[in-house]
Specification:
Length: 555
């Protein structure tokens, strides 16, 4: 049962509804320790991660500590050379370069051995993270969990045992932002100054695909307001390089346009390029960096499609049809895009998916899960398989010896309890609504439900027996299908489908035959119908507005 208070927070929750950083176990201690090191003139190093969350978290900590007068720099692991998170190479480098204090962000919770080494050699270590702590179950898989926490001086993570923080789903950048808020408060700097970083916490929350409920929803809603008014040269340049204006930015643009550009640096080059963009001092410098990141992201899209095509071939030609958990070995896939490929395959077959690639000394991979399969928990059951792993219920990263890949596939499937029903995607329709009901005022009313994303999906409407009048495939990547449809009441409207246009065309050909579908693409559709789920939107082109629907599912 949803309470009136929860409804009020959902619709109208603002900055005042955010939880006090002091409630985060270790946050006050981290702020006090950081401020002590700042005042002592000690060298502080941030060690982040190479994805959108890690880059934004590193930016927030770097700018926040600098504003307090700290001597601070940062290191972001190289995906190919270093792998994920804190490692001995980065610790030894910090020791060689006279670093006194290491603060992690978006990593560290699983680095017990590495942090033990750092402590043995005199480093002060503060961990800020949001990932699940490593644990072992009690005897025979029952009883109390035994957590293996790193021996850091301070640990800040809402998921650590004993943390009273009321909301556990913060991303790494949001945890870093909470630490900076408390640091400013401790240093006597007006806490409101830390709110300029809220846009970057919101950017990471959407980009890291966190649930947009509770506090995350407020962070994103308020952060988007700030993002639309940003004076950060790098963010402005990235927005404009993608043909957008700041006022246009929604959670969709972060998730599917801007965020992938930030991630592209860490995938195909180095995340320092993305960090450099956010730290750019002039718009001219930022403009060049933003264009480079956009070009890297375009290349990433091409590589991803090739890898997805190869994964589909393997699954459908090499006996994977009975697997409830897909473990696909793609030796030629660039390891940086393994997670994206896993996500695409998960969407296609609706089952947990691990994509494994070749690395220098071993195999590495990424997994993406379905809602009813906790990827991290299932990997814990097979922990002996992996050289290293970490993650959360919906996603994970790992490394293992190449010869153990078949064993990984076998054991994950043997342990899997998913039923056939669990592996069938369920489409929940909010309201059956004819398209002639759609109007601009109605679409404006739906805006109160934004921002949309994981955990707060757009309302889904449906109508049956839409006649297809014509069709054409659009986009540089040929990844958009535009249909002209008419409903039984005679309302005519454009319909856009952002899935796989060729797959929809093949579906129609199976049902109606190639000749009739060819005529549809020639603009002479006759007697072709679809049932669809959709979300209504307004298309604006050259100052003119028109109603359209965005198709989510069809049959």
């Amino acid at each position: 049962m949803i309470s009136d208070e929860e409804i009020e927070e959902y619709l109208n929750g603002g900055i005042s509804a955010l939880h006090d950083p002091k409630l985060l176990l270790g946050c006050r201690e981290a702020a006090k320790l950081l401020l002590l090191k700042v005042r002592q003139g000690r060298k502080i190093r941030i060690i982040g991660d190479y994805d959108i969350d890690g880059v934004n978290a590193s930016y927030i900590l770097y700018q926040g500590i600098r504003e307090c007068g700290g001597e601070v720099d940062f290191e972001i692991p190289d995906r190919m050379k270093d792998g994920y998170g804190l490692n001995l190479h980065l610790i030894k480098l910090a020791l060689e370069e006279g670093v006194d204090t290491v603060i992690t962000c978006d990593n560290g919770i699983a680095a017990a051995d590495e942090i033990a080494y750092a402590k043995e050699h005199g480093l002060t270590v503060i961990v800020t993270d949001h990932h699940e702590p490593l644990y072992e179950d009690g005897e025979e898989g029952g009883g109390e969990r035994h957590y293996r926490l790193p021996p850091a001086d301070v640990l800040v993570n809402p998921k650590q045992p004993g943390c009273p923080y009321p909301y556990k789903k913060l991303c790494g950048a949001a945890v870093a932002w909470k630490v900076v808020c408390e640091l400013y408060r401790t240093a006597g700097i007006p806490e409101e100054k830390a709110f300029r970083f809220l846009a970057f916490a919101a950017f990471a929350t959407v980009g890291d695909v966190m649930d947009l409920d509770g506090e995350n929803r407020i962070i994103v809603k308020e952060g988007l307001k700030l993002l639309r008014k940003t004076d950060n040269p790098g963010m402005l340049a990235l927005i404009r390089a993608n043909g957008l204006a700041p006022d246009d930015i929604t959670s969709y643009h972060i998730g599917y346009v801007l965020g992938p550009c930030i991630n592209a640096g860490g995938r195909l080059d180095t995340a320092r390029r993305s960090m450099k963009l956010l730290l750019a001092g002039t718009y001219d410098e930022a403009q060049m960096l933003a264009q480079e990141l956009k070009e890297l992201n375009d290349l990433r899209k091409e590589l991803t499609q090739k890898a997805v095509d190869e994964a589909v071939r393997i699954i459908e030609q090499e006996g994977y049809e009975d697997d409830r958990v897909l473990v696909v070995y793609l030796p030629d896939c660039h390891e940086s895009i393994a997670g994206i490929v896993a996500g695409r395959i998960r969407e296609r077959y609706y089952r947990p998916t691990f994509i494994v690639t070749d690395a220098a000394q071993s195999a590495k991979g990424s997994g993406r899960s379905t809602e009813n399969y906790s990827m991290f928990d299932e990997m814990v059951k097979c922990a002996d398989l992996f050289l290293k792993f970490g993650g959360h219920p919906m996603a994970a990263g790992f490394s293992l010896e190449k010869e153990r890949i078949p064993e990984m596939r076998r054991r994950l499937n043997e342990n899997c309890t998913l039923s056939e029903e669990d592996m069938s995607e369920k489409v929940t329709i909010d309201v059956p609504m004819p398209i002639d009901y759609i109007s601009e005022p109605l679409i404006e009313e739906f805006s109160v439900l934004e921002p949309f994303g994981k955990g707060n999906e757009k309302p889904l409407f449906a109508e049956a027996h839409l006649r297809l009048l014509n069709a054409r495939i659009l986009g540089k990547q040929k990844n958009v299908l535009k249909l002209r449809v008419m409903n039984p009441a005679g309302a005519v409207m454009d319909a856009l489908y952002f899935g796989d246009p060729l797959e929809m065309r093949e579906y129609l050909e199976e049902k109606y035959g190639k000749t009739r579908v060819q005529e549809l693409f020639w603009g002479r559709g006759e007697g072709l119908e679809l049932d669809v789920t959709y979300y209504p939107s307004v298309n604006e082109y050259m100052g003119r507005k028109s109603l359209q629907i965005v198709v989510k599912n069809y049959r």
